[in-house]
Amino acid sequence: xxxxxxxxxxxxxxxxxxxxxxxxxxxxxxxxxxxxxxxxxxxxxxxxxxxxxxxxxxxxxxxxxxxxxxxxxxxxxxxxxxxxxxxxxxxxxxxxxxxxxxxxxxxxxxxxxxxxxxxxxxxxxxxxxxxxxxxxxxxxxxxxxxxxxxxxxxxxxxxxxxxxxxxxxxxxxxxxxxxxxxxxxxxxxxxxxxxxxxxxxxxxxxxxxxxxxxxxxxxxxxxxxxxxxxxxxxxxxxxxxxxxxxxxxxxxxxxxxxxxxxxxxxxxxxxxxxxxxxxxxxxxxxxxxxxxxxxxxxxxxxxxxxxxxxxxxxxxxxxxxxxxxxxxxxxxxxxxxxx
Length: 339
Ligand SMILES: [Fe+2]
Ligand SMILES: [Fe+2]
What we know:
Layout: H1 3-6, H2 9-18, H3 21-28, E1 51-56, H4 68-81, E2 89-92, H5 102-112, E3 119-121, H6 125-128, H7 134-140, E4 145-149, E5 152-156, H8 173-181, H9 194-206, E6 214-218, H10 236-242, E7 249-253, E8 261-264, E9 267-271, E10 306-312, E11 318-324, E12 337-338
Parallel strand pairs: 1-2, 2-3, 5-6, 6-7, 7-9
Antiparallel strand pairs: 1-10, 4-5, 8-9, 10-11, 11-12
Bound molecules: fe (ii) ion (FE2) (2 copies).
């Protein structure tokens, strides 16, 4: 089979339609579209024992039985369990529930219980604002954590904290949750990790050497991607400042339901596929436009969704691989990209 044969019909249609025959032929002969510019210098002294971890996120489970998102989340779990090698652990990046109900969280836990490796959790806004995280914390513990694994320092934080908009307005818990469920929600204002977690972060990384490999998970991106949809974290500049002493930091986030990449200073930020639905790309110019997946096929419910895994090497370089349900990755993304 030639390279040309390997390009799917969808690739052909998209590339030939959008970029013309020259681009298609470049793809066919193996020209690299996007791996070089995101490749980074390695850090550390080769102290990382190579391993894989996976990320699942944004299931948005409803309370109704046998909803299609239940099966999609289960399919992503199966995807993780079929990986060879298996990931050492999975991080769940938030929004298990659609509107914060305990039965939704419990349903998610049941589906995720098929995973045989440890799972670490951070919350999304859809998990939190019915009871201010009470049920979520009851199941998953603190949303602020760190641990070391095979030479890498992993950090999770709750980035969906907003200022109190409900008390003065006399809102019920359901009304508060309803406000936070909206994609555009000027009522709630910007999200952040806030002072307590910033203080925790300062203490957490204080004793770490600058060449320590660090990986951070938050629900929202640690950069101003599209604040109108809360594709941002208000105090991300403070987080980046605290982490600026490290040679390199990898950050992964949920919430955006799409592939996206950005790098600010020493921090590389990677968006993840959800298991529920793909958001459209906001109407902004991206710093790394090659990281946009194709627009999902609206006739296929699961197109644009999926899982993802990351293989870290001894020098803290890594390959990010999206594991989509459908065929929505560009040729440049199909073999993963260096982070
Ligand atoms: Fe989400
Ligand atoms: Fe979210």
